[in-house]
Recover the amino acids of this structure.
């Protein structure tokens, strides 16, 4: 089950936060940029990389000054490639694999792939539901996922979608 709450990711007391990123781990949404500021200078150091990652990858770093223990960066785009349904799906699958490897049972996240210039909310929510279902069947991780949104209307829309049964 996926819970959807109106809340601030920066205050989530979870094992990890999944954060949408570009190939250099820079934020790709205003929510991610705000999260980065709240995580502080230590987080900025923790997310430095030697070379750009490919869209669809996911990596784990510390979470800086946030109460979460770790940050899982889901790489959904690069300078050359915009976020697509495929890159978001692959990044979510990679994020769930990292969650299993690191035994991250509790996850908080925004709706990965939704936002200005990205996927429609319904498509992003469907990708979340379907990839999480596959991950839980394969590894049992994560045990708990909370999608944090800014408005009640977003919460209601996403709840309707993630509550629907996935493909058989």
């Amino acid at each position: 089950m996926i819970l959807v709450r109106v809340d601030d990711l920066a205050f989530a007391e979870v094992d990890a936060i999944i954060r949408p990123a570009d190939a250099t781990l820079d934020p790709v949404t205003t929510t991610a940029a705000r999260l980065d500021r709240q995580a502080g200078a230590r987080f900025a150091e923790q997310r430095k990389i030697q070379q750009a990652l490919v869209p669809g990858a996911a990596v784990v770093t510390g979470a800086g000054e946030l109460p979460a223990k770790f940050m899982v960066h889901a790489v959904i785009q690069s300078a050359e490639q915009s976020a697509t349904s495929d890159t978001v799906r692959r990044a979510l699958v990679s994020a769930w694999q990292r969650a299993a490897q690191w035994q991250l049972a509790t996850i908080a996240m925004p709706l990965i792939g939704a936002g200005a210039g990205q996927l429609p909310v319904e498509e992003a929510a469907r990708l979340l539901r379907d990839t999480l279902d596959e991950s839980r069947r394969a590894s049992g991780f994560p045990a708990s996922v909370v999608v944090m949104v800014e408005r009640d209307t977003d919460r209601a829309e996403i709840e309707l979608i993630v509550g629907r049964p996935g493909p058989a």
